[in-house]
Amino acid sequence: MGNWERAFALGTACYVAAFSACVYAHTASAVAKMGVSLLASALPALLATELCGGDEAGGGELARTWLQEFVGTAVMVALTCCPGAAVGHLGRAYEYGAHWVAMVAADYSCGGPQVNPVITVAMLVARGGSAVEALVRIMAQVGGGVVGWRLLFGGESFLTGAVGGPAPDAHLPLFYVFWSECLGACALALAVFAFATTKFFQEGDNYLVKMACINVVLRCVILGHGATGPAVNPALASSYAFAASGAWPPLEDGSPHYVAFWAGGLCGAALAGLAWRAITKFAGGECGPKFPNEAAKLALGAYCAGLALVAWRAHLGVEAAAIIHETKYGMALKARHPLTKLFGRKPREY
């Protein structure tokens, strides 16, 4: 690629980015905002060769990575977020089974994309690699998430329950929503390392067992981290907020959305990446006792994932639940009928 072609590509990208920003800022149409947002998320694919320093082969591979993440995230959201709404959010065991089946179908049909900035950042920290590729993946994941959620909202009339997504609990300080997502994301990333990168589960071996183990950890996070939904996937959380409201979450009022899902989630990813680097170094015999086997990696990874879950549920989660309870109780006391206040009766649910 010559200098003229590279300059033209960069100029076109700048024009598209500026056009998207101007349209988004000056239109009230949710459809127009979604269109320019998807256009902006596709810029890495359009500039793939330029991002690879003019290497057309590398650019083609980067563009394919973007497409795999975009399609994979859209399919993941549409399939895995559907079972609960389809049957009315009953919380029954078959919903969990349906979630696992949907998770397997989305992963297998799309070739195993990462579909989650938490996993992308954790892999980058643990294994190194290209920061540019990680950014391309994340932008594709956000764009694909928007498409997936819009597909769900479009079919909501055919579902028994409402389509819902993650959001930080309005009664909690930022401290708790941050650590809810941070520890949940750390547990999920460590589970992926332990069950998807050790030799017991590589190259398609024990694929269904691998997905079941990861799903169990994810289900534990979902059941225990209600302070934020949870999402443990910043792209899923932001794309849901955009698809539901027609606009990206605002940067105001302490920005609980970004503190919880992006700051908390990515900090948890970085923590998991550093932990896995230490585990692989220890289990590989580079320091400390020699355990040069994959079983040690799997056991240590699962143990650390369990520690992250326990750290929330045993202490911080208890405090968060107490804060929510006391806040709702206080609001219920204020909302009582004057006659109820006169007789000093408390809200029935308490």
TrEMBL record:
Belongs to the MIP/aquaporin (TC 1.A.8) family. SUPFAM superfamilies: Aquaporin-like. Its main location: membrane. The chain crosses the membrane at residues 174-195, 207-227, 258-276. Pfam families: MIP. InterPro entries: Aquaporin-like, Aquaporin_transptr, MIP. It is found in: Endomembrane system. This is Major intrinsic protein. It comes from Aureococcus anophagefferens. It comes from the Eukaryota. Keywords: Membrane, Repeat, Transmembrane, Transmembrane helix, Transport. It is a multi-pass membrane protein.
